[in-house]
Amino acid sequence: MSGSKPDILWAPHHVDRFVVCDSELSLYHIDSAVSSELKAGSLRLSEETTATLLSINSDTPYMKCVAWYPKYDPECLLAVGQANGRVVLTSLGQDHNSKCKDLIGKEFVPKHARQCNTLAWNPLDSNWLAAGLDKHRADFSVLIWDISSKYAPETAVATEKVRLSAGEPEVGLVVTKPLYELGQNDACLSLCWLPRDQKLLLAGMHRNLAIFDLRNTSQKIFVNTKAVQGVTVDPYFHDRVASFYEGQVAIWDLRKFEKPVLTLTEQPKPLTKVAWCPTRTGLLATLTRDSNIIRLYDMQHTPTPIGDETEPTIIERSVQPCENYIASFAWHPTSQNRMVVVTPNRTMSDFTVFERISLAWSPVTSLMWACGRHLYECTEEGKASSLEKDIATKMRLRALSRYGLDTEQVWRNHLLAGNEDPQLKSLWYTLHFMKQYTEDMDQKLTGNKGPLVYAGIKSIVKSSLGTTENLRHSRSGSDRQADIIQYLSEERSLALQLCGWIKKGTDLDVEPFLNSLEQEGDWERAAAVALFNLDIRRAIQILNKGASSGKGDLNLNVVAMALSGYTDEKNSLWREMCSTLRLQLNNPYLCAMFAFLTSESGSYDGVLYENNVAVRDRVAFACKFLNDAQLNRFIEKLTNEMKDAGNLEGILLTGLTKDGVDLMESYVDRTGDVQTASYCMLQGSPSDVLKDERVQYWIENYRNLLDAWRFWHKRAEFDIHRSKLDPSSKPLAQVFVSCNFCGKSISYSCSAIPHQGRGFSQYGVSGSPTKSKVTSCPGCRKPLPRCALCLINMGTPVSSCP
């Protein structure tokens, strides 16, 4: 390629060889770089590869194009198109068998001299070589030569000896009679054979793309276009062809050859080369003049045009293999996404285009990602604890254990969830108490607003304003009695029941609750609840019992001794020591106990704002010791905190109301647990809350999750559970009848035909009911089967039809 930029070609059957051609042909062998030091005569292509020059052929001047013989034998045969239109077969001196020697030196000469623009070997019949020439008014521009034909004396003359770089002089032949002549009085700028048929040749002529069929050379299929340069066929989709003109690339579908199926974004500079990747489907690389950027177009979907507007989806990206301008590039024939680029000064770089990594989550939380031809899978470790697992894994395991479906013992649902999340435990105990105390609740507290208990303690407390009684009690078990003001009302008693401190009824005895805490080994909490109910002696007993059980903290004895010395004197040494001890304790309930004992009456911030104490215990404490104004302020503030944090313990305050939906929304945003949100909202929410679009969104997403996990039966169980708690969600039963002959819908076609009234509206047949019946299809007038008549006229189920 005298006077032009160098080009580069990979050997078709030697993945470690390529040739660089400009004014001469240079054959290189590519190898791995085993060390940082280069061998003599080697060039570094990348950190991993080097290239070694094997041979040079400088006996073919005025090169314009080069094509490598596609078959393995002879392996180093190349065809060179020259500026005078001649095509010369030459070699790089690597093959000396008789077949190669017979071919080397042959020249194929057109009738009139003009530039040879392109060459293309037939991939199946490798003896056919197509050459594209410039225009001549008295000659053809597409010549197909048979390199193995036998020549008559009049068609071949002896030529001068041709000296090769690595062989002895050979005598060649000049061939002037082509096998086929195509494209008269036109110019051919690019060529390629169509892989689907060895007799079809696609040529980029001067003003059109033409498909020549060698079985009938007088006819051709063509389309007028300016994009006639660089025609190339996608190796993975033989009906897809790319060509270019100036800075624009056209993608063609040979099955719909009237116009391009896609025109790629026009570049500011003229294009010099386009090439499909041989190892990756639908990946096209383009190079513009004076640029160090190669643009890649990834055709995501094979274009199969149905209508005129159908286009394939593409992803465009750019890569920069080197810093200097790129003269040409060539994809590696077998290594995935690998190419070698060459600069105008013959500097070469070995470059791999890394695939974009696409990620996909499976419904069972396995992570899959694709990189090139490789798929990688990452699964969650089975040894991870429940709290460390992804929420999708948790929800899946809970669904298998029928989580949320226990409507009798509602509190057991937290056990089905693994009994590891204290917020879930609090939620389900709250819902359990709500259900338990709603069944026989006095409706005078609720009016027409539905069960007040499901409205939450916030609403219950507001309804108690002005009905609270003040009671004075002293701490039982203390030598020195100090009166403490407690507050009592029917609503506050209900709040204590929802907190779990007392049982249903008027009895305010907390002993059953203390016994249950002792059975669970929650000694500190039990002692604190006993103390908050002004029973110091019982609190001391619980602490001593916990210390002697072997499972409790040994420091419980020390705390019990400290409690036994309680005095209400403000300046006593006991108060001073307890205030110091409180700061050294780690358990929040022990801290709250001493905060309560050392607080002034009506000022209990040390207990109320001990955040590690359960919300239900702090609320129950507030219901006993705060007046109406203080209680409302505290409940309002705590409710807002719970809503902002998405803390499920706050459902005790908000209930299943709009505030509860706001709280649950924060919880779902934080955790993604639509499963708990769905079951919770279905438990006792009023209809207006269930119709909230957020609630419906959680429910539908959970149903979709069950479907994605293929938990068909679990989804059905959930739907049944939902229909029981929310009858409005139950879909209407529908039956559609169509004619077996014409396929028309009877319920639709018969809308204007009179029907008997019974069972009429149930099956979707509209119209005025009369005594007449449907006996035939209104579309084709053929008689209907007896079962269909029963469905339409009588509303009789098919299963019971005689």
Automatic annotation (TrEMBL):
Keywords: Lysosome, Membrane, Metal-binding, Repeat, WD repeat, Zinc, Zinc-finger. It comes from the Eukaryota. Pfam families: MIOS_a-sol (PF21719), MIOS_WD40 (PF21720), zinc_ribbon_16 (PF17034). GO terms for biological process: cellular response to amino acid starvation; positive regulation of TORC1 signaling. Residues 739-796 form the GATOR2 complex protein MIO zinc-ribbon like domain. GO terms for molecular function: zinc ion binding. The keyword Transmembrane helix does not apply. It is found in: Lysosome membrane. Residues 395-625 form the MIOS-like alpha-solenoid domain. Its main location: membrane. GO terms for cellular component: lysosomal membrane. Belongs to the WD repeat mio family. This is Meiosis regulator for oocyte development. It comes from Calidris pygmaea (Spoon-billed sandpiper).
